């Protein structure tokens, strides 16, 4: 009888960034002349930056009773954007870890809106800055508003849709990078 009253187990989700990004610069191929990019921790609205898996229903924010991110969403998003940028820009050494020497560029990303609605609409508004170490080079500021459709009625689907729209953001950032 007690088993019937038990709630379903909590499931933990990640944003799918592999532990070793495929397509990234192989170990040993980074030289002192390889341009370095450090990715600062992504900023999110306070209500999103936790471990709760969140979906929107109109003006109401719903926290999942059974789904959690494995870490704070800002950390997972930073890991994902870093991995995707490293995959697409193999000519760069991209990291979100502190480095001994100053980086060639710093990337700062601010996500001001990240909504996954149960109707399957994902929307994201973000701006980012690419800050060169050389003050004679231009500072690059970009902004994007992205939408994506997909199922979002289960925790698995909300996590997948969140990853998909963050992947779209990573593609936009990579495309804006100076050559």
TrEMBL record:
InterPro entries for this protein: ABC_trans_aux (IPR005586)
Cited Pfam families: ABC_trans_aux
The ABC-type transport auxiliary lipoprotein component domain, residue ranges: 13-174
Name the UniProt record assigns to this protein: Membrane integrity-associated transporter subunit PqiC
Organism name: Gluconacetobacter takamatsuzukensis
